[in-house]
Amino acid sequence: MEKKMERRGLGRGLSALMADINLAPNTQTAPDQPIARKPDILPVERLQPNPNQPRRSFSPESLEDLAKSLSQKGVLQPLIVRPLADSTQYEIVAGERRWRAAQIARLHEVPVLIREFDDTEVLEVAIIENIQRSDLNSIEEALAFRQLMDRFGHTQERLAEALSKSRSYIANLLRLLSLPEDVQALVKDGKLSAGHARALITTPNPSELARQVVENGLSVRETEDLVRKPAAPGTATPGRKGKSSGFEKDPDTRALEADLSANLKMGVSINHEPGGERGVLSVRYNSLDDLDLLCRVLSLTPRDGSI
C-alpha cells in the first residue's frame, strides 16, 4: 500500500515542537514574560522564507499594524529558524509574518532561535503555527488538524493535549470536513458559521439546506429546527431519525456518525433497531477512488477490530 503518512516514531515529539513555537507565534510576548532561551540576533537579509510554507497570503493591513507595534516595542518574540547547508543564510521555520513586518518597520535585525529541524519537522511546525492564527476560519483550522493527523500520524488526543484544546473541539471541527465542498466554501466565506455547519453534517441534503439557511438568514437554532423538520408527511427527520423506524437517533449515534464521516470523508448513516442489537450502517461515496479507499480500509481491519 502507498505510504500516506510520515510517522516519526519516537522522534522529537509534538510537545517539543510546540515548546519551540511557544504557542503564540502571531502575538508579541508580554514585556513581563522573559524569553526562556536567550535568542541570537540576525540581520533580516540573512533570513529567507520557507518555500513550502502553507500560508501563502499575508494581509497588508495586518502587516502594517504589526509593523507599527514593532517600531514601538521591537520584536519581543524570536523567530524560529534553521541554518541552510553551506550558506550563511537561515530559513524561517516560524515567524515569517514578523520578519515581513520588521522590514516594513525598517528594523535591520531580529531575534531568532536557531534549531536543527529536518524537512518534515519544518512542515509540521509551519502547520502548527498556522493553527495559532486568530483569523483562521473553521474549515482552514480543520484542514490543518487533518493534515497533522494524516501526514504525521498524530491522534486527536495528542493534538488536544499539545494545543491546549479539548478533544471535542478538535473532533467537532474535523466533522466539518465531511460536508460537501460547496457547504465548506460557505463556511470559508463567512456565510455559514461552524455552528450552522455542524447542524447540517448528518443530513442527506446539506447543500440544499445550507442554501436555505443563507438565503433566509437563519440562526443556528433555526437551522437545527430546519434539520429536524420532516421533508414530507410520514417521512423521517433527515439525518435525525431512522429511515423506517421514525424514532429519533440518540446523541451517541449522531456523534458516532459524525466521527466516522469526518474520518472517512464520506457520508455515514447508522440506523439502529430500537431496543435491539441489530442495525444498518451505510456509507455514501462520491467517487470510485472513495470506494477503493473504503474497500482497502475494510479489508485491512480484522473482525475483532485489532490492527
From TrEMBL:
Ranges of compositional bias, category Polar residues: 49-60
Keywords tagged on the record: Chromosome partition, DNA-binding
Similarity field: Belongs to the ParB family.
Region Disordered, annotated ranges: 44-64, 225-252
A GO term for molecular function: DNA binding
PANTHER family in the record: CHROMOSOME-PARTITIONING PROTEIN PARB-RELATED
ParB-like N-terminal domain location: 40-131
Name listed for the protein in its UniProt record: ParB/RepB/Spo0J family partition protein
The organism's place on the tree of life at top rank: Bacteria
One annotated Gene Ontology cellular component of this protein: chromosome
Function: Involved in chromosome partition. Localize to both poles of the predivisional cell following completion of DNA replication. Binds to the DNA origin of replication.
Single Gene Ontology BP annotation: positive regulation of sporulation resulting in formation of a cellular spore
